[in-house]
Amino acid sequence: MAPSLRAAQQRLCMAFHESRFNTDMVDHEADGSTDNGIFQINSRQWCDDYRSSTRNLCHMHCSDLLTSNINDDIVCAMQIVQKPRGMGAWLAWRKHCEGHDLSQWVEGCNVGSR
Question: Record's family (predicted)?
């Protein structure tokens, strides 16, 4: 299987289980941080929430993750994936996608290994 196809399957599975593909979803965490957007990117490290000191490693405002244009969400998620935890940074991926057959996520898309 082509690496890009596998990556697409993993990201689609993760986004579904994190947000059900809801681009404006905000989940408030017990520590006061928020998980934002389709990929549920956390404000503690990855974006500026205007309320607390954050690392803002994606150099963006958390509100930018809540629009229907997910280009910036994808760029930030790609930065997260490049870190040592990779896709394992998302609990939903570890729980629902890792080690599972993910072919259903691209079924009918006329994609395949080449």
Answer: Belongs to the glycosyl hydrolase 22 family.
The per-residue pLDDT for range 72-103, each reduced to its tens digit, is 999 999 999 999 999 999 999 999 999 999 99
Question: Tokens representing 59?
Answer: 């150099």
Query: Rounded to two decimals, what is the model's pTM?
Result: 0.90
Write out pLDDT tens, residues 52-62: 888 999 999 99
Measured distance CA(37)–CA(19) in Å, rounded: 7
Number of structural domains the chain divides into: 1
CATH number at residue 95: 1.10.530.10
Catalytically active residues are: 18
